[in-house]
Amino acid sequence: MRELAFQAIDVAKMLGAEYADIRIIDDATENISVKNGIQNVSRGMDIGFGVRVIVDGAWGYAASPKLTKDEIEKTTKLAVEIAKASATLKKEPVRLAYEPPHRDKWNSTYIIDPFKVPLEKKLDLLLTVDKILRSDERIVVASGELSFWREHQLFVSSEGAEIEQTHLRSGGGYSATAVDRKTGEIQTRSYPGVQGDQYMQLGWEAIESYDYIGNAERVRDEAIALLSAEPCPTGEMDIIIDGNQLALQIHESLGHPSELDRVLGMEANYAGTSFLTTEKLGNFKYGSDIVNIVADGTAPGGLATIGYDDDGVRSQRWFLVKDGIFSGYLTNRELAHTIGEERSRGANRADGWRSIPMIRMTNISLMPGTWNLDDLIVDTKDGIFVSTNKSWSIDQHRLNFQFTTEIGWLIENGKLTKMIKNPTYQGITPQFWNSCDAICDDKHWMLWGVPNCGKGQPGQRAEMSHGAAPARFRKIKVGL
User: How far is 297 from 454, CA to CA, in rounded Å?
Assistant: First the structure.
């Protein structure tokens, strides 16, 4: 692989490239699912490479699944031709921030290799959960899945970088859908993640830590109880948002708007542009004084934890929001200079070898506060507690949003009382985050995985994690 990588660099330089890099990627996947007792298993392998060049100040990119010398030369020539064509329309030349040419190997950490765990053990886990979920006839659909992914990548650049990385991800989850045949009411509860599934950059030990079987009865019973639960009240109320729901709130209302390519209008597909324009950097009151949100490509177990991004930039940790003030963007080598920074933040990633890298979220987390959850509930006299995302919408500038969760409970005089169904809350991003007056402590904090973030056209998928603990927001509009 190294020989082929260096061949691409040599060909690109011979054809006049000012810069060139190549990523050779080898993937292995395993996906196992059970739905109402019906089993499905799929396994796959994928290998290929992508060559990226700058010629006459413009990018060119080409990729291929054929790892041969002839194909390396052919694909590199195509990337150069694309760059030359792009250069005829460029407004200004590409300018890359400096990064030392790293030569390194990096591997994610795990204890138990999930690809070595017997298939029978995985199916037995899902079938046991399935049996528990469907032990009540009101559960009409029970589904569960396990998913494992390993990626090996070699990155070589014309600047002298040579980086080899291996990532291992494990995850899955399940859901139970209950139906009241008399009223037609349908409700679903899922476990254990943001939208059912939970993923981490770990091995089989991650699956064991979730206690799938131990939570199955609760998930089943909550789905059934929701059928007769009261609807969400309407009006303004204090809300405590559980960590798994707050993770998606962070993702949609800070993660996407802090991507610098969106801010500059270079990218708007799937998630729109951004209200966090560059004049706000360092002075905009994004949230209350207790809101501290960190981007961290080094977080243990995070789905976006890497040694180096697809620009060859070493992973970092920095504030996006510090003491409520908007303090940083997600950047790459190409755009760092537009906000006066000399170095990229290491947020350039691609969806496999077929795609050109773009700015993507790293792990983004709300730092824990000082509250115990029980004490926070006692301190809340009139409100609701909401958990687990059901649906969401947000405008193209990432300002006006609405979220609906799977489940909620009324808080009356400092106690959780009635279960409520279809809890809905809405707000305007900076107003919402400025209403945050309490965050639970690190005992309640955990990383929640998002394995399917979409961006770009053609669309690219990316993975990242968001750390959060339950937090309280004052006077939020709830209900429809």
Answer: 19
